[in-house]
Design goal:
By secondary structure, the chain is of the alpha+beta class. It contains four helices and nine strands.
Amino acid sequence: MPDDNSTQEVGSSATEEDSGPELVKPPLPPCDPSTVDTQSVGEQRMESDVRNIKDRLKSAEKWMIFLTAAIVLVGILQFEAALLQWNAMKGQLEEMRQGGGTAANQLWQAIGNMNWMARTADGSLHQTREAMETSKRESEISLTASVEESRLDLRAWIVLEPLVPVLAVPEAPPQGVPSPYRYELVLENVGKTPAYHVKVMMIQLLGFRGRLENSSTQIANTQDMMLMGKFKNGPSPDEIKKEFPTVISPNARRTTSIFFFLPGRPNDPNSRALENYEVGRIDYEDVFHVKHWRKFCLFVKDSAGTLEDCSYGNDEDHNPEIHPQSPASKPN
């Protein structure tokens, strides 16, 4: 067929053009049939290429859309995952915060409980200490009372027995001569333990009737100052000290003699005659090394030689082993 031949010729010519040097052919005339066929084939090929390109572009667009959609989907999924993770982290943070608050509250409650327990223990310890102190004080008081009672019960206790006058000269003395009387000064230890370092000091004084026995100051000065050798110009120790055994056993009696003279008219209440006084003190120490004393003041009451205690100066020490202000009391 002429068309096929022409097509083959055109193809062969094209092949030849591709393989060899480019040859310029004169354009065919418009009305040439070969020219028309060639143009229609080129247009077809162009259209085919355009369609292929369009198909490829559509395919590429589809792929781009798919990939974009996939990327967007992946981004959305990642955002959702990130959002979920953020929510989870936020929840964990909130839980941690709540847990931390709960732990802090529990810690403060534990600290409060420990403080309460410490205060309770301190209060209990304080109460226990107070109870122990009270018990200790009561025990000490009881022990001290027992010791004091024991000392009081076991101490030496020297008493002075009443003095009985004995006329020293049986026959009546001449008119105006005082009658001498002798008295037995008897000391007895009525305690349960010996009395040590016994010392008896006394002195005879002359004074107007009713004055010396009522003068507490003069009697106190005599007993606490003169007899203790505190006066510079006072009597010598030999003049005031009576010899006694330095130790007197329990229930033992020791005796010494003293003499009184009865000057003037002791039976006359209006008489201003001088009276004879015996002022003295007895000092001793018990087995517990506690010092004690006994004071006495006596004067002649009448012509029969009756002795009477002065208004002052007849007392004994307070028991130092009990309390300085506790009055002494003779044991039964």
